[in-house]
TrEMBL record:
This is Amidohydrolase-related domain-containing protein. Gene3D superfamilies: Metal-dependent hydrolases. Residues 195-395 form the Amidohydrolase-related domain. It comes from Schizopora paradoxa. One of its GO terms (molecular function) is hydrolase activity. InterPro entries: Amidohydro-rel, Metal_Hydrolase.
Length: 413
């Protein structure tokens, strides 16, 4: 395994093109640690996820990192007893990530660190990925607090002022040096069948009115009404295309809040075709719809395919199958890796180690079969880990080979 291909894949500096901030030390126990392994919730998370092949493998890898017994509860006990800063450093410094692109719209309660706090772990400054539904909700909240009488007329007035503010906000973010791109979670809200054709003004107003009533009744604002949500996506696609900023879409793998039948990236095809100047990134390998995503990346110039989150949520064999499906059809200039790291530093560690392992095993097999030369395989790996994301997000980086890993997964290179 001491081949040039192995050394490259396990040590090359990487751009993590989609992740989320870590929890603050004061909130490090805010969520069940089993969330490292699974998007499930409740008993399905606490009782079932720990009996998956993904958990058995992650437990072994974390036990090795923490130098403790190969047991899930032992891993939890060991990490709970560690100084939080020490824990973060141990996990993050073992990844070889040169630059982080962070979607900081997952946290509405102030429990995570700011995006630039993460700069301590990487040679390059972190960049933001702006979640458009989160941005829209923040713009709407204050105005909705002033609305007690919800009618079509009040919704119409609100939409008029909001439209101007949202366009300005999206444009401002697109012009910011701290922002690498945008993200939509339409998949979670109304599905990926986002209409490229504008709904009537009345339909958008009615959708906003429903959101207003729900906010007044519950005190919580969650934009989940199709005409309005589709409108947000179209505005973003237009502005992002103008400024050359990619728009990421959550596709496939998620928690039980997703309607799986509407999470296939195939639903995005009309929108992709309608905005050919706007780069679109399909997140999470669109698992289990990876082949559909690969097809879109192959036939549309503006589509790129991220293969993240399946590390560590899917078994080792499943991960290898995902990487193979990514490579079946998608051009190797259009694929990008990510951790989907979030909340816990262990998600970054496992997301990196397991991705490097799967990428090596798949490419090494192709070299053995003489389908690729070793140099070609090395080029594929370097593009997937670094160069494709560096180019798409206009990061202007050079791979910091001095920063690259000298050890990975217990092996020294």
């Amino acid at each position: 395994m001491n081949s040039k291909l192995a050394r490259t894949i396990f040590t090359y500096p990487a751009v993590d093109n989609h992740a989320h901030p870590l929890l603050k030390a004061s909130h490090k126990d805010h969520f069940p640690f089993e969330g490292v392994l699974s998007e499930a919730t409740g008993e399905a998370l606490k009782e079932d996820s720990i009996n998956s092949l993904a958990c058995y493998r992650a437990t072994k890898q974390l036990a090795k990192l923490f130098d403790c017994e190969n047991d899930w509860e032992a891993v939890k006990t060991k990490r709970d007893g560690m100084d939080y800063e020490e824990l973060c450093n141990l996990c993050m410094k073992s990844t070889g990530i040169q630059c982080l692109l962070l979607d900081d719209g997952l946290d509405s309660d102030g429990i995570t660190e700011p995006f630039d706090w993460h700069d301590k772990f990487t040679p390059a400054k972190s960049k933001r990925i702006v979640r458009i539904e989160w941005l829209a909700q923040n713009l709407l909240k204050d105005r909705m607090k002033e609305s007690t009488d919800v009618t079509l007329a009040t919704a119409s007035a609100l939409l008029s002022s909001f439209s101007s503010d949202f366009d300005k906000a999206i444009t401002g973010e697109a012009q910011s040096e701290d922002v690498a791109g945008f993200k939509s979670v339409a998949c979670y809200r109304t599905g990926l069948d986002v209409s490229p054709v504008s709904a009537s003004l009345e339909e958008i107003e009615e959708a906003l009115m429903v959101a207003m009533k729900r906010y007044i009744a519950t005190g919580k604002l969650r934009l989940a009404d199709k005409a309005f949500n589709d409108y947000l996506v179209r505005v973003t696609m237009e502005v992002a295309g103008k400024y050359g900023k990619p728009v990421q879409f959550h596709t496939g793998l998620g928690d039980n809040d997703i309607v799986l039948a509407r999470s296939s990236p195939a639903h995005l095809q009309p929108l992709i075709a309608a905005y050919p100047q706007t780069p679109v990134v399909l997140l999470h390998a669109s698992y289990p719809f990876t082949r559909e995503a690969g097809y879109l990346a192959a036939v549309y110039r503006n589509v790129f395919l991220d293969f993240g989150e399946v590390f560590p949520c899917v078994s080792a064999e499943g991960q290898r199958a995902v990487v193979r499906q990514v490579l079946e059809l998608a051009p190797t200039t259009k694929i990008m890796w990510s951790t989907d790291g979030h909340w816990w530093p262990e998600t970054y560690y496992l997301g990196t180690l397991q991705a490097r392992e799967a990428l090596f095993e798949v490419l090494e097999e192709s070299v053995r079969r003489e389908e690729l030369s070793e140099e070609q395989a090395i080029g594929v790996a370097q593009r997937a880990l670094f160069y494709n994301a560096n180019k798409l997000y206009r990061l202007g980086l050079e791979p910091d080979l001095k920063f690259g890993l000298k050890t990975s997964g217990g092996k020294t290179w």
